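Reagents: none. Just compute today. histidine kinase.
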Amino acid sequence: MVRYVLVVAVAVADTALLWLDGAGGWTLAAYAVSVASVMAAVDRLPFAAFLAALALAVFTGGSLALLVCTGFHAGHRVRTRSDVVVTAVVLAAYVGVVLMVAQRAPGGQEPWTVLARVAVLTVLPLLAGRYLVRQREQLRRERDLVAERERLRISRDMHDSLGHLLSLVSVRAAALEAGPLPADQRRAVHGLAAAARTAAAELHHVVGTLRRHEGPGLEGIDGLVARLRAAGVAVTAETSGRSVPLPGEDVARAAYRVVQEGLTNAVRHAPGAPVTLSLDWQPDALLVTVANLVPRRAPTGETGGTGPAGETGGTGLAGLSERVGAAGGLLRVRSEPHEFRLVAMLPLAPAATGAAA
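Predicted 3D structure written out:
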């Protein structure tokens, strides 16, 4: 319903502007149909709709509301560098045509006025649409991290508390079962012990299911970097040393979470700044480093903070420190006005250590 209202509102607004410029009759009707058709296709073909809006704006000198709406929707789809290049080329061509038309028209507008109009009607809606998409992606990644940390916490709590209690029940029931009891009580105790063992087995199954969905391991890092690059983040990935197997799934998932959380916090620390991801395979450990540097704009002497994870204000760093510690590693975070650096050391398997040496 909202979509149809928007289509009608844009068509009515731009048609009214054209009518005020003196158009009428079939020209006005054809223009209204064209605007409505472009707005109807903006969800499915945002770039095509934006190009059509630019063409209508050149031919009619109007289409103000149509330019804003189609530009905003096109901004939602600008994801890769090629999309940015194509959009920039199209806008440059549109600016050239508009300036040429303005110069040839009697009493034409000043070039700066034309450029300001183009910026307000096309560039700003494009940037606004792109910004909102990046914010939504950021919020989605943070929600996923929160959900995964909560799932991990629940699995650990269930294993530590309920598993311990069920084990005690099972042991005490087994002790009673071995003692001198009447036959009917012995059967009841035997059933209690069997029920406790069954409950413990089901608990371990549930905990295992939760932990299997904690996320990928090292194999998921390439996809994570590719998604960030597609979102416009300049990420440089470096690998050194000889890669060897990690001790288990917990360590591999911890490495992935270090990269994910580090990239998220680095982008939040300095949006637009290049980020460096380093995987350094040492003889006895894997060093994972995520860092970005912001060019200094003020005199030196500014102080920052260096401390345990979670003291820098990054979302999820405290939980990440617990995960890395549970995997037998160490995590350090450095966050200053011009630098963010996250370093994690994860141990390698004993067999892998010998192989790497």
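The chain has three domains: 2-136, 141-212, 218-356.
Action item: order primers for follow-up constructs.
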